[in-house]
Specification:
Strand content: 25-35%
Order of helices and strands: HEEHEHHEEHEEHEEEEEHEEEEEEEEEE
Number of strands: 22
């Protein structure tokens, strides 16, 4: 059988990660049953293809197989025309549940990775705020007047946040965090994160916190300072749609990025879509209300927080809300 006839919209088993700063919004808002752990759960890796962690298909004919196995078998039929043989799936999808403020950190771009070596991987990401508690903040990018000298002088101080662009977090907003952007997610945020397939993070300030073992967590000041893009002072915030309508709407969230394109779908009825000539897979992440995805007998249903992978070869499909009110779905392609 051809890939076109075998592949279907895929869902995956979440991989939960203990984090000292983890929260409880996945339990309270998404009604997730989290594993019992010694430390809080701060991340759910919803889709990942890495040597150390690989997503497992949750349902259908390929249940139990890993994303990495399917990429090796189906290649461009799954990933799209940009697939390079031997490469892993190019993106990761995470949920970030911040009970406390995350460390101040930066991810390197390709130039920084070449300079630093050591297996560094470039990482550009996008945050979509699924929910935010009152007073929640986002720290993203250096303030326009901040200098490199000021940053180095204040690197060990909590006052370093005075050099940052700081935003009041609210559901529906998004942030484009290009590699080289100094950033931190504030306490009280539940974030859907779309990112390059990388796990390289340089932590430059941890606000005096200790880790799960009671010791200060490692900092990576030298690598971090070499990775920051000091010329980048653009506003990373993409304001969310205001108000609700009784018809389907689509908003561009990330459009001019070489690594992924992201749209915000606000749906009241069936949304018809198409992977077209197979240029790229479609990732569909539910934010509000359940939706049914696919066509014919090759369908899946996802709830808020879950992500479905529509293979590049799949062609025509639909996204249908499964409850009253507006459904919100984040769509990601290459």
């Amino acid at each position: 059988m051809t890939a076109e006839s075998k592949l279907y919209p895929l869902t995956f088993v979440p991989v939960y990660m203990e984090r000292v700063w983890g929260g409880n919004m996945m339990t309270e808002l998404l009604e997730r049953e989290l594993p019992d752990c010694d430390a809080p759960i701060g991340e759910s890796w919803e889709l990942v293809d890495r040597d150390e962690v690989n997503s497992v298909v949750a349902a259908g004919e390929f249940a139990g197989k890993t994303l990495g196995e399917l990429v090796k078998i189906y290649g461009s039929s799954l990933v799209g025309s940009k697939y390079v043989e031997g490469r892993k799936f190019p993106l990761m999808v995470k949920l970030i549940d911040a009970g406390e403020r995350l460390s101040l950190q930066v991810h390197p771009d390709e130039n920084a990775c070449r300079e630093l070596g050591g297996g560094c991987e470039p990482k550009t990401e996008m945050w979509y705020v699924m929910a935010a508690r009152p007073g929640a903040k986002i720290f993203a990018g250096l303030d326009g007047s901040a200098t490199k000298v000021q940053l180095m002088d204040m690197l060990d101080s909590a006052d370093i946040e005075k050099l940052m662009q700081v935003y009041n977090s609210q559901g529906g907003d998004a942030y484009y965090i290009a590699a080289g952007t100094l950033h931190a997610i504030g306490a009280g945020n539940l974030i859907l994160e779309i990112q390059q397939n990388s796990d390289t993070t340089f932590r430059v300030n941890d606000w005096g916190r200790v880790g799960i073992d009671g010791k200060p967590r490692a900092l990576h000041k030298e690598q971090g300072l070499k990775s920051i893009d000091y010329t980048r002072r653009t506003n990373p915030r993409v304001p969310g749609a205001v108000g609700e309508r009784d018809f389907n709407r689509k908003f561009d969230v990330v459009k001019l990025c070489p690594f992924f394109q992201v749209s915000d779908l606000r749906l009241h009825s069936t949304w018809n879509d198409d992977t077209g000539s197979g240029e790229s897979f479609h990732l569909l992440s539910a934010v509000k209300n359940r939706v049914r995805i696919g066509r014919g007998e090759r369908m899946c249903v996802i709830s808020p927080g879950e992500t479905a992978l529509v293979p590049a070869c799949f062609g025509v499909y639909s996204v249908t809300p499964e409850g009253p009110g507006e459904a919100v779905v984040i769509k990601t392609t290459l």
